[in-house]
Amino acid sequence: MAAPFQYHAALLDMLEQQPPKGRGHSWLFRFALHFRHYHTEEACFRLLRACADEWRDRTVPDAEILKAVRKAYSATAEEARQTAAVPWPDPNPEAIARVLGSTTPRFGLTPIDITAPQILSALFDFDELVCAGFAQHDGATATLQEMFQDADRYQFIVPSPMTARTGRNQAGEESFRCLANTGPRRYLIIENDAATKEEQAKILTHLSGLLPLALVVDAAGKSLHGWFWTAGVSDSEIRLFMEYAVHLGADPHTWVRCQWVRMPGGTRYASDAGTKPQSVVFAHDDLLAEVSA
C-alpha cells in the first residue's frame, strides 16, 4: 500500500507489510496512534480500511478499524506510552536486505582517538547523576564529576541522566539502577548482534536519517551500539523509531530506559579475565566540538 512521501519512513514500512497473524488489531491501534500526528480520524480510517482490504488472512470489519482509530485518537500521553506493552514486530528479511543493498555507511569500524572521560563530558553535564557499572550488579549512581577519572574502567552505563542516587525497583527494593531513578530518555541505543558489524553500520546509517546519530560504540563483541538523540522528540515518535529499528533486526531490550549499554571508551571484561576496549568508532561533529572545546 503506497503512501505520500512525507510520512515517517517507519510508517511507510508498516504500510508495506501485512501484520503477522493474530496481531492485526494491535497493528491497527499502533499505526493509528502514530498517524494521528499527521491527519484526522476520518483520514486514518480511510487509509486503514484500504490497508485491511489487502490483508489475505481475514476480513476486517469497519467496526474493528473504527474502534482502533477512536482509541488511538483519544489516548492521553500516558496511554500512548503504554504501547510499550504491544509486542515488538518481527525482523523483516526483505526490509533488511533492501536497506543493506541501498545504504553506504557514513563511518568505518576503525576506533577514533577519544577517551571515556572526554565523550562522557560531551554526553552529560558534570553535575548530572550518571549510572555506571563494572558488571551487571556491580555499579553505582553518582555525579559525572565523581566517576569521571575512572570512567574508562567501567563496562556499562545507563544512557540517560538519573534523577536520584537510588530508587525503589519493581520488587520494592532500593536499587542504584531502576526505572524509578532513571530520568527522561536522552539517548536511545540501537544494537543488533544478528548482523555483521559492516551490516550494522549500514543499518545505523539508514536510521540516522530518522533521528540524529550521536555516536557509535564497538561493544568489543558482536555488536555496535548506536546512540541516537531523543531529547525533545515525542514518546510516540521514539516508539515508532524503535519499532522500525526492531523491524530491521535491532534488539528491543534497549528500549527500557534503565537498561545497561556498553560504556563508550570503557572496558569489556571477558569471562576468561581478559579485557577489551569498547572503542568509539563514530562521534557526531557537535560532540567532537564539545570534546575539543
Overview of this structure, please?
The longest helix has 13 residues, at 235-247. Residues 1-5 have low confidence and may be disordered. With 293 residues, this protein is of the alpha+beta class. It has helices spanning 9-16, 24-35, 41-52, 62-73, 77-81, 93-102, 116-123, 144-147, 197-207, 235-247, 285-292, and strands at 129-135, 138-143, 156-157, 167-168, 174-175, 187-191, 213-218, 224-229, 261-262, 267-269, 275-277, 280-283. Helix 1 (9-16) packs across helix 10 (235-247) and helix 7 (116-123) packs across helix 11 (285-292). The radius of gyration is 20 Å and the shape is globular.
Q: Tell me the strand percentage band.
A: 15-25%
One letter per element, helices H and strands E, the order comes to HHHHHHHEEHEEEEHEEHEEEEH
Number of helices: 11
The low-pLDDT segments are 1-5
Main sheet attributes: strand count, strand direction, barrel closure: 4 strands, antiparallel
The percent of residues in helical segments reads 25-40%
- Which whole number gives the mean pLDDT? 88
Strand order of the largest sheet: 2-1-3-9
Rg, nearest Å: 20 Å
Q: In the residues, how many domains can be counted?
A: 2
Q: Give the strand tally.
A: 12
